[in-house]
Design goal:
Number of domains: 1
Largest sheet: 4 strands, antiparallel
Helix content: 25-40%
Low-confidence stretches: none
Order of helices and strands: EHEEHE
Number of helices: 2
Radius of gyration: 12 Å
Structural class: alpha+beta
Strand content: 35-45%
Length: 71
């Protein structure tokens, strides 16, 4: 199975301590939201990140599969 990239967005602006919880992801902080971007080898790895997010009691507002570049 080919690795896939996902973006997960949750409410709130992650401070440095929270960003450290996601050092395996690209973290982008916007106005009132934080977006994590990471490549996952399989659905189990994505589920693991979602469990980690849930354990931190973060409110997820979007999970998106990032389309691979054409070609």
């Amino acid at each position: 199975m080919r690795a896939q990239t996902y973006e997960i967005t949750f409410l709130g602006q992650a401070n440095s301590a929270l960003r450290a919880e996601f050092d395996d992801c690209e973290v982008t902080v916007g106005h009132g939201i934080t977006t994590l971007r990471a490549e996952f080898p399989d659905q189990g790895a994505l589920t693991g990140l979602m469990v980690r997010i849930s354990s931190l009691k973060l409110d997820v507002i979007d999970v998106s599969l990032v389309a691979p570049p054409p070609g």
